Amino acid sequence: VANEGGKHWTVNEVRALIRIWSDKNIQQQLEGTVRNKRIFEQVAARLQKFGIDRDWKQCRTKYKNLKHEYKSVKSAQDSGSTSKSMKFFNELDAILRHSIIEQ
Questions:
Q1: Which residues contact 44 (CB under 8 A, 6 or more apart)?
Q2: Which of 4, 37, 80, 92 is most buried, most CB within 10 Å of its CB?
Q3: Burial, 55: exposed, middle or buried (Cβ in 10 Å; 0-12, 13-18, 19+)?
Q4: How many helices (H) and strands (E) does the chain have?
């Protein structure tokens, strides 16, 4: 899993990122493109409004890491294992459940 580039994300920063990510408009943009620098620049700008100083690369890396962790926890659960969990699973499940089903 990639390095997040510098300082550790706090719980509040991750919550803010997830809140922005849960925006249907952002989700549709992310699902529809591979070259997503501009989308993550928007995400970083919105985080800035919360007083969170992250650049687009940090946002994209955190997004990818969260998504990766979610998928590995989800597949462990689907195979009957309850030993794997993650902090923001329920929030991510609410966002990602529909997009994974549609794939």
A1: 54, 55, 56, 58, 59
A2: 92
A3: middle
A4: 5, 0
